[in-house]
Amino acid sequence: MAESLQMVPVEGLTARTVAEARAVLGGERRGLRAALPFIGPAVVASVAYIDPGNFATNIQAGASYGLVLLWAVAFANGVAMLFQALSARLGIATGHNLAELARAEFPAPVVYAMWVVSEIGAMATDLAEFLGGALGLSLLLHIPLIAGMVATGFITYGLLLLERRGFRPLELVITAFVAIVGLSYLIELVIAPPPLGVALRHAVLPEIPDAGALTLVVGIIGATVMPHVIYLHSGLTQNRVPARSIEERKALIRFSNREVIFALGLAGLVNMAMVMMAAVVFHAGHSDIAEIETAYRTLYPLLGAGAAAVFLTALMASGFSSSVVGTMAGQLIMQGFVGFTIPLWLRRVLTMAPAFVVIGLGVAPTQALVMSQVVLSLVLPVPMIALLVILRRPRLGAFAIGPRLFAFTLLLTAVILGLNLLLILQTFGVPVPGLG
Cα separation of 436 and 426, whole Å? Predict the structure, then answer.
């Protein structure tokens, strides 16, 4: 597969961690602790599924429609699990990431088009993540948003420098941020518990009440199934623990699948908790809330300073960590598609620039977040389709996906394309029956 590519080992695991992984693969260690050496890639990927874009779309969904759109969160999270598992599988099976394989497999014009579209998606991602972290910092410290953006830039760049010490330290920091976001929303649900029976019903029964709900559904899918992290996950698993046989690769894929279910399952619960909190607190008397700033200021008198501070802490943790992950993905996308990289500081500046432009033009931060998620949803089919095409190549042998799984994933991709088409029609004023 992709014989023209050179397999470069991924550095960052300590000798002790590699030895522990080898012991597990050799059957010398079993039980829950056996999974520890393999934990990391899916946790890093899960950050993208609880980023500030999710805060924006989930708050609007809960405030405007109560618990009705919970099904969209559940659906998107299920799709995310499947595609992240497939991306990790590709990296483990081939030793290459999706962008590298696309460059080797597809014609040059297609590759360059994919690169441009993917870079747009990465920039839209960083717009949401960077703004979210800056907004949380600005509201918590009572400083201007621009000052919060500058501070966030320095913080995220500092976190990215951890990668020079190997990716394990950075993984541990990101895991801590994920834990902060999850714990914050657990606290919020204890403060404002939702009707669980009603929530469960709406989580499994699809409903799109009107055109506004359609926009939010597409935004939720764009905020949950992230194109940049589909690329990144394959890079995080490629040669992480280099396999010496087909059986070892299969074992690594099994560990990866379990981690995906665990990490993204938790991320999905956090997303649903966001919608439920907004539904409980805002829907009855504040259904017009559409801004993160307004949600924070409304939380303060309704639930107290503690709940409002917890909300901002989660927003900052989400913004800082997901912005770091977005920059990592941007580096991988450029290197994979066109074979070169730029200095880390320059990429950070370039990805921050659109946020400063948007705020300088007077666009409301939350509106910018929501629209960035719609852009992501429109970009999403590119890595999804590329992943499916490559995973069907006979050269993958035992690691190629079968016809049933291919048909199922193709169906899910078609559903997302259909939602995107409806959104485009609505945006250009074309009447959609039932969604006037």
Answer: 9
Please check whether residue 37 lies inside any domain of the structure. Answer: no
Q: Is residue 33 part of a domain?
A: no
Angle at Cα 383 formed by Cα 380 and Cα 388, nearest 5°?
Answer: 120
Judge whether 136 and 316 are in contact, CB under 8 Å: yes
Dihedral in degrees, nearest 10, Cα atoms 379, 381, 384, 390: -110
350 Rama class: left (phi>0) / alpha (psi -120 to 50) / beta: alpha
Q: Is there a contact between 337 and 114 (Cβ–Cβ < 8 Å)? A: yes
Tell me how far apart the alpha carbons of residues 257 and 221 are, in angstroms, rounded to a whole number. Answer: 21
Range of the domain at 187: 43-427
Whether residue 106 has pLDDT greater than 50: yes
Distances (CA, A) of 42 to 161, 341, 384, 432: 21, 24, 17, 38
Whether the Cβ atoms of residue 93 and residue 82 lie closer than 8 Å to each other: no
Smallest CA-to-CA distance from 387 within 3, 109, 53, 80 is with 80
Instruction: Report yes or no: 85 and 298 within 8 Å, Cβ to Cβ.
Output: no
User: What are the tokens at 70?
Assistant: 């919970």
DSSP assignment string, 37-92: GG-SHHHHHHHGGGSHHHHHHHHHHHHHHTTTTHHHHHHHHHHHHHHHHHHHHHHH
What is the C-alpha separation between 138 and 147, in angstroms, rounded? 7
What pTM value is reported for the model?
0.86
CATH number of the domain within which 388 lies: 1.10.4160.10
Could you tell me if 276 and 186 are in contact, meaning their C-beta atoms sit under 8 angstroms apart?
no
Per DSSP, 288 falls in state T
Q: Is residue 121 a contact partner of residue 132, using CB atoms and an 8 Å limit?
A: no
Q: Examine residue 6 and state whether it is found in any structural domain, yes or no.
A: no
pLDDT (average), residues 303-309: 80
Angle at 213 between CA 211 and CA 218, to 5 degrees: 100
pLDDT tens sequence across 142-158: 888 889 888 988 888 88
